[in-house]
Amino acid sequence: MKTGTNKSAGKKISSKFIYFFGSFGGILFGYDIGVMTGALPFLQNDWGLQGNASVIGWITSAVMFGAIFGGALAGQLSDRLGRRKMILLSALIFIIGSILSGIAPQDGSLYLIAVRTLLGLAVGAASALVPAYMSEMAPARLRGRLSGINQTMIVSGMLLSYVVDYLLKDMPEMIAWRLMLSLAAVPAVILFFGVLHLPESPRFLVRGGKLAEARQVLACIRPESEVEAELMDIQNTARDEQQAKQSTSLSTLMSSKYRYLVTAGVGVAAFQQFQGANAIFYYIPMIVEQATGQAASSQLMWPIIQGIILVLGSLVFLGIADRFNRRTLLTVGGTVMGLSFILPAVLNSLIPGMDPMMIVFFLCIYVAFYSFTWAPLTWVIVGEIFPLAIRGRASGVASSFNWIGSFLVGLLFPIMTATISQAAVFAIFGVICLLGVAFIRNCVPETRGHTLEEIEAAGIRQGEEDGKPVMTH
């Protein structure tokens, strides 16, 4: 394992340390995605929110609402300040937001919504910055696997939150949910001190004219024989962009030069959330409650089961990430996910009185396939498909569309299930899953095994031609 000097820390730093803490931001929004699953039943009882679907939806989805803006802002600022500084700022906001959530005044719904919106700024920033940082640090042959570590961190954060929720479930209601929310500050503190020792992305450094520092970072994470060749590729790309004098306004993103790749990356990010995964992650105790009639607060083992499936799936992805094409995995995953949502509705119409727990069985199948296909690959593609000139801004837009989907699912799911059956709601998500497969087959290029510079060159060329998928193996 090669090591180099990290100027910001004044120490030598290993590539494994860089990859670990580069992806550790996933723990933050993984924890906050999952923590409301267990906290919500106690919060409902403590504040008497049963039956108030709109307030429940807003409290749950406020983080995603803030994340919409956090992703976009972080994308713009990271192109100016660097990925590393913005991750540090995100960790600080996360610490503050977590503590403020835990000390919410009694019956302070508006306060909690506002604080969780602030927390969402940090969550959205992390969701945009971590994939971009990891893709710029990883070599092409390992980029899928290393970027997939981010997904492992996300689902590990979710599982951690489920376990914490379960361990605190016997505490008084008004204390339990407050501790669940405020303990999110712990991984944020760990992230902050870890990132203090990380180097900046070599591609960002080259863009800022800091060639010596970029060479030094590459020496940490590449074999010596590859450093100069990759540095030259990055320089050539940066030089071309400088000569073209491209701005990174929103209009630039949709110019003929970049439209094809931006549409592909943003579309994948949006479909991932509109497919309904977070309806399961946020509301699984309530889903089981509706199916069985038992109290949601007694169903906190189900989130742990879902969390274990997610972690195992992320580990499967690490083993297969660079062995199968991105489009193949997304196609298989999206098809099975869609059928897992649609079949319960079909069976329920064909077999009246069917065991209502059957829908939970199919949800487990959905989670299993989601965990090693759409969940990790969305962020792999977002991290690798955008050209350097627009990567920060485009990653932020993709992240924002992802969080718009997450926000709407979190907000509308309890309202929808209050008016129509759960099976019908999930059938709607199933149709969206199948539409996502059609989008992958027609609008997304294959990127496995190509350097970021190759993806950029081929994608721009194709975008100026006929807009069909390119770089298939």
TrEMBL record:
The family database entries (Pfam families) matched by this protein are listed as:
Sugar_tr (PF00083)
Please classify the protein's predominant subcellular localization into one broad category: membrane
Does the record's keyword annotation contain Acyltransferase? no
Membrane topology qualifier: Multi-pass membrane protein
Q: GO terms for CC?
A: plasma membrane
Molecular function (GO) terms listed?
A: carbohydrate:proton symporter activity
Q: Where in the cell is it found?
A: Cell membrane
Q: Taking every annotated instance into account, which residue ranges of this chain make up the domain Major facilitator superfamily (MFS) profile?
A: 18-448
The UniProt record lists the keyword Isomerase = no
- Give the residue spans that cross the bilayer: 17-43, 55-74, 86-104, 110-134, 146-164, 176-198, 260-284, 304-321, 328-347, 359-382, 394-413, 419-440
Keywords of the record, alphabetical order, are: Membrane, Transmembrane, Transmembrane helix, Transport
- Family of this protein: Belongs to the major facilitator superfamily. Sugar transporter (TC 2.A.1.1) family.
Matching PANTHER family:
PLASTIDIC GLUCOSE TRANSPORTER 4 (PTHR48022)
The protein here is known as Sugar porter family MFS transporter
Q: Which organism is it from?
A: Selenomonas ruminis
- Lineage, please? Bacteria, Bacillati, Bacillota, Negativicutes, Selenomonadales
